[in-house]
Amino acid sequence: MPDTPAAPAVLDAARLRALTREFLAAHPPAGTDRLDFLRARFDAGLAWVHYPEGLGGLGAPRSLQAVVDAELEAAGAPDNDPRRIGIGLGMAAPTILQYGTPEQRRRFLRPLWTGEEVWCQLFSEPGAGSDLAALGTRAVPGDGGDWVVDGQKVWTSSAHLARWAILIARTDPAVPKHRGITYFVCDMTDPGVEVRPLRQITGEAEFNEVFLTGVRIPDSRRLGAVGEGWRVAQTTLNNERVAIGGMRLPREGGMIGPVARTWRERPELRTHDLHQRLLKLWVDAEVSRLTAERLRQQLVAGQPGPEGAGMKLAFARLNQEISGLEVELLGEEGLLYDDWTMRRPELVDFTGREAGYRYLRSKGNSIEGGTSEVLLNIVAERVLGLPAEPRTDKDVAWKDLAR
Amino acid sequence: MSTQPDLLHSEEEEALRAAVRDLLTDHCDPAGVLARTESEAPHDAKLWKALTEGMGLAGLLVPEALGGQGATHREAAVVLEELGRAVAPVPYLTSAVVATEALLACAAGEPGSPVGDLLGDLASGATVGTLAVGLHTAPHAPFPAVRRENGTLHGELTAVAAAGAADVLLVPAEDGGLYAVAAAEADVTAQLSLDLTRPVARIVLDAAPARRLGEAEPAVRRALRAGAGLLASEQLGLADWCLTETVRYLKDRKQFNRPVGGFQALKHRLAALWLEVVNLRAAARNAADALATGSAEADLAVVLAQAYAAGVAVHAAEEAVQLHGGIGMTWEHPAHLYLKRAKADSLAYGTAGAHRERLATLADLRPPA
């Protein structure tokens, strides 16, 4: 045994490539059970390399994950089906990492990443949409040091599949709204949790309503301090916005693609009015694509600009106008709809299905993840520096707010 | 095979921008521009000299061997962004871009050749040139040509931009040639123009001596395409000034005991306008980059930029006038200079509609039978 341990190798791309190859040699994808492989990958620190050692990472730069992913993909390794567990990966995990106790991190992160445990997010309420901090779900201390939660949450994706939820609830109604919120991990198998599908204008139910009645949450599943929930939630929501954008689309890669194809293939549908509108929207879509590409180039060059704030606004407007045009273009077929059956789709593709579905589903694009009206305020205030909206709610106890 | 366009501004390009902006801040303030519009000299010769002799900017598109800077459309676009921001009354777009491109399309070749010499003169800024084609002509549209008889030119051309500032006119003739005519040999009359800072003129040629430079068709097409593509950068600078100045004013202006910029109806309009300007920046940069690299998609990039830019520039200028309220409607406030330039620019080198029509072919989105 040497007296002093060897200096740790520098975690650069070459080192990560070597580590990944060693791992693949020890766990050949072809001969390894999928779940065993994913668990071993997590334990080897190759799940999310920027996470700390022991929690699925190596404390390496986040950008090096691409090196690992490329090696694994080339070897035909299974992945953790990230689209199925997006809320866990994108929102719950960074929050648990930043605010969780060592015990919470150990308990939750591994099965979250492998997909053994699906997560959902219990934030929005019927009475708290854009004004999320006004939420009214109550958490009161029960006997035995746990919390008793009562309330209703809404627009919850994956609630019917989830083992766990990140939950914000009101623990002190006597202080102004932002200060009386606490952040919890909620067990979705608790008998007080009732999940009901929320049927939407497309006929199907991507989302759920979640009714919480006397749900008991041990204090050991609180994330962050009592009353600090709003601050903890900012971590969750900021990571939600990081996940938007960064997608690189080819020309006609978005909603304009199916319309342009129909236009080319079916000349009998063409009219002069539709032609002018189509050309305008084609220009808008292509310019918007270039703006997204410019934003991506800025990020790569290490000069992130404020342009990202506007991308979702443009995305929503374009999807709505283009799909609206498409229904008109189809003429008689525009009077039809592909399927009103109440279904529970596991994955959502905005450009999937028929024109009528696209038209209806895109109505949600200007509501979900921040309404266009709120986003315009954000651009005006944070980018242009215009005065904030007058606030009458900042110094009023939550219980005294108008409702 | 298409590569990704570089849509950013490099450090060197930002340094160039800063230098041009400094010069314009010192020598092209709105009050001075306004006063000049009603003077005998609508073009600012002193500013032109500082931009050209002082900074060498008229020669950006001209190879070094011919006395230019050997730079590209990317740098020229940055200059135009700043000139647009200042509605500077200098013939940069018409001489250093459009006339220069027309000459570059002629068999320029050697220093010492007539075309090469003229390019050198334009590159130095000592000579100002203009293409004698109406400013409203789209790159793919028909253009007028004058008669050639006994070696001289005869005819009338109207709506020629910056002809009043030009020393040499580049004139297409019916025989298919592009000719150089000394402005002194032509009758150039200013037309009372919507755009006070880039007025147009009527040119009458009556047995004007002319020297043949090359073929008109390819020269005019290339010149107008570059003009249209880089006009988008001028429109970007103009729109950005309108947005920035309006935001600044609305933070300061108070009514109902609060800054007017705090009213949500106005905040949302300005945020929407910001989004348009951000988009225009990408579209203009894409066109400049495509022209600079000689991309196979340059036609599409120019058409896309011009189908988008006019709407943004005019919207920005109209919002500037409206949101400034009464002061925005006065002669004294410079907003009208921007509105007039923006509206004239919406016709320059083809309307957005003309470019969309061209797009129908380029993007294979054909009209109804």
Automatic annotation (TrEMBL), chain A:
Which cofactors are reported in the record for this sequence? FAD
Every Acyl-CoA oxidase/dehydrogenase middle domain range: 120-205
Acyl-CoA dehydrogenase/oxidase C-terminal domain location: 227-384
Q: Which residues form the Acyl-CoA dehydrogenase/oxidase N-terminal domain?
A: 36-116
Which GO terms of the molecular function aspect are on file? flavin adenine dinucleotide binding; oxidoreductase activity, acting on the CH-CH group of donors
Q: Which Pfam families match?
A: Acyl-CoA_dh_1, Acyl-CoA_dh_M, Acyl-CoA_dh_N
Superkingdom of this protein's organism:
Bacteria
What GO cellular-component annotations does this UniProt entry give? plasma membrane
Signal peptide residues are none
* Keyword terms of this UniProt record: FAD, Flavoprotein, Oxidoreductase
SUPFAM superfamilies named in the record? Acyl-CoA dehydrogenase C-terminal domain-like, Acyl-CoA dehydrogenase NM domain-like
Task: Spell out the family assignment given in the record's similarity comment.
Answer: Belongs to the acyl-CoA dehydrogenase family.
Provide the protein name. Answer: Acyl-CoA dehydrogenase family protein
Source lineage: Bacteria, Bacillati, Actinomycetota, Actinomycetes, Kitasatosporales
